[in-house]
Amino acid sequence: MTNVLLGYQPLFDLFLLHLGMAYSQWLVLRAGVFSLATVGLAAVGAYTGGILVVTLGFPAPVALLAAALAGGIVALGLSVPLARLRGVYQAIATVAFIQIVLSLNIYAAGLTGGPQGLNGIPKTVGTLTLLIAGILTVYLMYAIMSSRLGRAFDAIRQNEAVAASLGVSIVRHQTLAFVISGALAGTYGALEAFHSYALAPSQFAFPFLIAVLSYVVLGGRNTIIGPIIGTAILLILPEIARPLAEARMLVYGLLLILVINYLPRGIADTLIERARARRLSARLAKSDTAPTTAARS
């Protein structure tokens, strides 16, 4: 039994790392920003943490804080042009940002190691650290969405004009969401660097972008549990069906098409809405039968 659990420990670690990335993506979408920059911001955090530890000899906790700060600062700078864009244009701009970061990681060989990547990073992050980070991330998302800030995010996502009429600053709140998302992505990028010994530019390329976006779309964009469900399904599925492991991107693409067509709100959101509808219909049925019973008596 112990050997079985140890065999699945790397998969659990990967789940926790990707869950943090999924929540970074989830937060900006929840605030009405059609940004796909999470992967690029994670690369900024990963290389910031790795370079500080390997090249400059910083302790890992300090490098982790610097990575979170770097992700937040880059996100703040990126939010300025994004504030002028809407919808698909935001997505295109952030995909371009990812390509810029990827190119810098490849061609700035003296700093990042170039195509060979950054090697020799001490492994200072294990399962317990990742589990604590995952729990804190879930709590942070819950605290944000339960506050006035979360309600402002929801109002902006549903209708910007109505939110503005209620006194909600669209630019300020979306910038704040983007900065928090960037800091979260930078943190998890550094955690991945400190967990995997090495970094390669290809880790933060287009396939990873598709994976992170799939976690959110598949699980659901409106509930806290959505990214957990989406990440778990998409990481466990190739492990259950081993032949699918090599066709991971194909599986992600097919699942995205199916979910968008038949479960547009995502698995978790759809199940929760159906459960609420059943409870509401049960209450209405009880309220309809109550006057009839009283009249008969």
User: How many β-strand runs?
Assistant: 0
Cα(first) to Cα(last) distance is 62 Å
The main β sheet shows up as: none
Structural class: mainly alpha
Number of helices, where a helix is a run of at least 4 consecutive DSSP H or I residues: 14
**SSE pattern, N- to C-terminal:** HHHHHHHHHHHHHH
Strand coverage percent: under 5%
Task: Tell me the quaternary state.
Answer: single chain
Cα shape:
globular
Unreliable stretches: none
Rg of Cα set:
21 Å
Share of helix, binned:
over 70%
Calculate the mean pLDDT score and round it. 84
Task: Report what the structure shows.
With about 300 residues, the protein is mainly α. It has a domain at about 10-205. The protein is built from 14 helices and no strands. The protein has helices at about 1-5, 10-30, 40-55, 60-80, 90-105, 110, 125-145, 150-160, 160-165, 170-195, 205-220, 225-240, 250-260, 265-295.
Short description:
The chain has 297 residues and is mainly alpha-helical.
Features:
mainly alpha; 0% strand; 297 residues; 14 helices
Secondary structure layout:
Elements (H helix, E strand, L loop, with lengths): L1 H6 L1 H22 L7 H17 L5 H23 L5 H20 L1 H4 L14 H19 L2 H11 L1 H6 L4 H27 L9 H14 L6 H15 L7 H15 L4 H30 L1
Helix pairs in contact: 2-7, 2-10, 2-11, 2-12, 3-4, 3-5, 3-10, 4-10, 8-10, 11-12, 11-13
